[in-house]
Structure formats: C-alpha cells, structure tokens
Design a protein that fits this description.
The protein contains one helix and eleven strands; from the N terminus they run βββββββββαββ. By secondary structure, the chain is mostly beta strands.
C-alpha cells in the first residue's frame, strides 16, 4: 500500500510558475514508478509526466515538454512537478500516481491503468 498526498496547487497568471509536491508514504521502498496526470472539467484524465523512482526514464506529454519538469527527493519520499510558462489550458486537477509493478515504461508510463495508487488531487488554475 502507498499513500500519496499532493500539494502546491493554486491560482496563477498565464506565464507564471507553480511547483506541485507529492509526498508518498507506506511501501515507498517498493515503488517502481510515479507519475502526474491531470483532469480538466469535462475531459478525461490525461498523462503529464512520469519517472522511475530511481530517477531514470523520464517521460512527458508533448503538451508540457520544455515547460514542466518531474523530479524526486528520495530522502523526503517526494515527487515534484515544476510547471513553468503556464497556460490557461493547463488548468486542471493534478493527480499524483504510483505503481509497485514493474511496468514497461516506454509503452506504459502514460497509461492511467499502469498505476495502482492515486492522490486526492490538487487544483491548478491558470488565468489569462
């Protein structure tokens, strides 16, 4: 079992930055990969970024490449999502996710079904 708690969301103007945090507890030593997804009103949950807990194998959605960075601090059991040059279309609830399973990152990192544990979400609103 892994528990995830996100924080760091808020209201920001277009062009601004936010850093989301996801603190993991429980079986963190067995965590294989973690990811960020987002869900805008009326839309399906969409992949944002993922990484292996070791710090290797970083993946990003095309819409955030060059603007968002996923990273982790193992000592704090925390994964971050640094979001720069935010756009109104980035407005969504952002969810942290984790899996203990050995998944093929290259083909599964962006699939919500690859992750077994989810946080409660944190709202990000970008005003134009």
């Amino acid at each position: 079992q892994v528990e995830l708690v996100e924080s760091g969301g808020g209201l920001v103007q277009a062009g601004g930055s936010l850093r989301l945090s996801c603190v993991a507890s429980g079986r963190t030593s067995s965590t294989y990969a973690m990811a960020w997804f987002r869900q805008a009103p009326g839309k399906e949950r969409a992949f944002v970024a993922a990484m292996r807990w070791s710090g290797s194998s970083l993946y990003y959605a095309d819409s955030v490449k060059g603007r968002f960075t996923i990273s982790r601090d193992n000592a704090k059991n925390t994964v971050y999502l640094q979001m720069n040059t935010l756009r109104p279309e980035d407005t969504a609830v952002y969810y942290c996710a984790a899996t203990l399973r050995l998944i093929a990152m290259i083909v599964r990192a962006d699939k919500a079904g690859s992750y077994d544990y989810w946080g409660q979400g944190t709202q990000v609103t970008v005003s134009s």
